[in-house]
Design brief:
With about 120 residues, the chain is an alpha+beta fold. The protein is about 30% helix and about 35% strand.
Length: about 120
């Protein structure tokens, strides 16, 4: 008795990639994700490659993974792919302490974020 196959989380002409633990706040990552939403994947890769934001490096890796998933797992045409969705959420937060004057300490929060990128094959119009 085996477990039934789970249904696909995206459509037939779509591929998905998720970066689960990207070091940095969700607010900063969302600024980078907004740059690539609804863009062709070639343009999105160039935008991320030449962006001055530090979060663009991790976002580019997730986008490259989504493109590879579309090509290898779902047999989609890479030239016709568009970033259909780039959503950002919170992940874990590491808690650290810093010593302060007079025997006190303060809390330091080091957040992690999640990035979910869906690429869709667009028909040429």
């Amino acid at each position: 008795m085996s477990k039934p196959v789970s249904p696909r989380k995206v459509g037939e002409k779509e591929a998905l990639s998720v970066g689960t633990q990207i070091r940095g706040s969700a607010q900063k990552l969302n600024l980078v994700a907004a740059l690539i939403r609804n863009k062709p994947v070639g343009d999105a890769m160039n935008i991320l490659a030449f962006s001055t934001k530090a979060m663009a490096v991790d976002a580019r890796k997730v986008l490259a993974s989504a493109i590879a998933n579309a090509e290898n797992n779902h047999n989609l045409d890479v030239d016709a792919l568009v970033v259909a969705e780039a959503s950002v959420g919170k992940s874990i937060t590491m808690k650290r302490f810093a010593t302060r004057g007079r025997g006190k300490s303060t809390r330091i929060l080091k957040p992690f974020s999640r990035l979910r990128i869906v690429v869709r094959e667009q028909e040429e119009a």
